[in-house]
Design a protein that fits this description.
- With about 210 residues, the chain is of the alpha/beta class.
- The chain is built from three helices and 15 strands.
- The protein has a single domain, classed as Metallo-beta-lactamase, Chain A (4-Layer Sandwich).
- The longest helix is centred in the C-terminal third of the chain and has 15 residues.
């Protein structure tokens, strides 16, 4: 029997991995069925296709942690009439053929998902916070997971001053430690379920 690609990792929170041809590596997508309405984060189409979602609450909103994570948003937005959202600083990246709605950092989006400021790596870089199930922090490109280790993205992806970018990322995520969360959900790396806040705290203490 084939193991399904979509896995429920917390009550009402689903995760799957797909191969991203453009960057040559696996990336991670999330669907939260437990919110009202249901939402997707950094979504690509899973192996099961769209049929899987027909047996679950229709995803009405798609949230991007940054403009480059549009991924397969249009493939979801068309059949489900879902609204795609990106921080307003990234809206110039999209043309009329890819309608995207803007939000500001600090806003609470439909479904009760909070848009937290990250910036530093790019102006629109956002972490999403979901308070349920002990709290979950969704992280885009700013921090990646490799096995049991966390890391910033490679220096070559940080522009001309990686040191300044890392300083900005440490500042942003140190502020987020004031929130209650137990899980880390990465766009690049497997989900960290349980003790995620402790893992992030330890990483920020030694990150260089």
């Amino acid at each position: 029997m084939t193991t399904p690609s979509i896995q429920e990792i917390l009550p009402g929170l689903f995760h799957w991995t797909t191969y991203h041809e453009g960057i040559g590596e696996d990336v991670h997508s999330y669907y939260i069925a437990a919110t009202r309405p249901a939402v997707l984060i950094d979504s690509r189409v899973p192996e099961e296709g769209f049929a899987w979602f027909l047996d679950h609450p229709v995803p009405e909103h798609i949230y991007l942690t940054n403009r480059l994570h549009y991924r397969h948003s249009d493939r979801f937005s068309e059949p489900f009439h879902a609204t795609v959202w990106c921080h307003e600083a990234g809206l110039d990246h999209f043309g009329e053929d890819r309608p995207v709605r803007g939000f500001k950092h600090g806003e609470t989006l439909p479904g009760g998902i909070e848009a937290l400021p990250v910036g530093a790596l790019c102006p629109e870089e956002t972490a999403f916070y979901w308070r349920a199930n002990g709290g979950a922090l969704f992280i885009g490109d700013a921090i990646v997971r490799d096995g049991d280790a966390l890391a910033f993205v490679p220096n070559e992806l940080m522009g001309e001053d990686p040191r300044a970018v890392k300083h900005g990322l440490r500042f942003a995520f140190t502020r987020h430690l004031a929130l209650d969360f137990d899980h880390l959900l990465f766009a690049h790396g497997e989900p960290w379920i349980g003790h995620g806040k402790a893992a992030l705290t330890g990483f920020l203490a030694i990150a260089a």
